[in-house]
Design goal:
Layout (H helix, E strand, L loop, with lengths): L1 E5 L1 H7 L3 E4 L3 E3 H12 L7 E4 L2 E2 L5 E3 L3 E5 L6
Parallel strand pairs: 1-7
Antiparallel strand pairs: 1-2, 3-6, 4-5, 4-7
Length: 76
C-alpha cells in the first residue's frame, strides 16, 4: 500500500487529508493519472514528493512509500 498525503485545496477537493492506495509499484505519472480519474482533480500543477524528496513523473513509487501532493503556493 502507498500512503498519499493531501494538502490545501487538494484535501478539500478529495475530502480527505490522507489516502491509502492498494499499489505495490507505480510511476508518479500513473499515480497522478489514477488520482485524476478517481477524484476529478487537475494534477498538472501539483508537485509530488516521495518520502520527502521531490519526484519526477517517471520516478517509481513503491509499496510502503509516502507520497505528498503539494499544490502551487501563491501569496504576496
Amino acid at each position: 500500500m502507498i500512503n498519499v498525503q493531501c494538502f490545501a485545496h487538494i484535501r478539500e477537493q478529495i475530502g480527505k487529508d490522507q489516502l491509502i492506495l492498494d499499489e505495490t509499484k507505480i510511476t508518479v505519472k500513473d499515480l497522478m493519472d489514477k488520482l485524476s480519474a478517481l477524484y476529478s482533480i487537475q494534477t498538472e500543477s501539483i508537485m509530488v514528493a516521495v518520502n520527502e524528496e521531490y519526484a519526477e513523473p517517471g520516478d517509481i513509487v513503491n509499496e510502503g512509500d509516502t507520497v505528498a501532493l503539494i499544490p502551487p503556493v501563491s501569496g504576496g
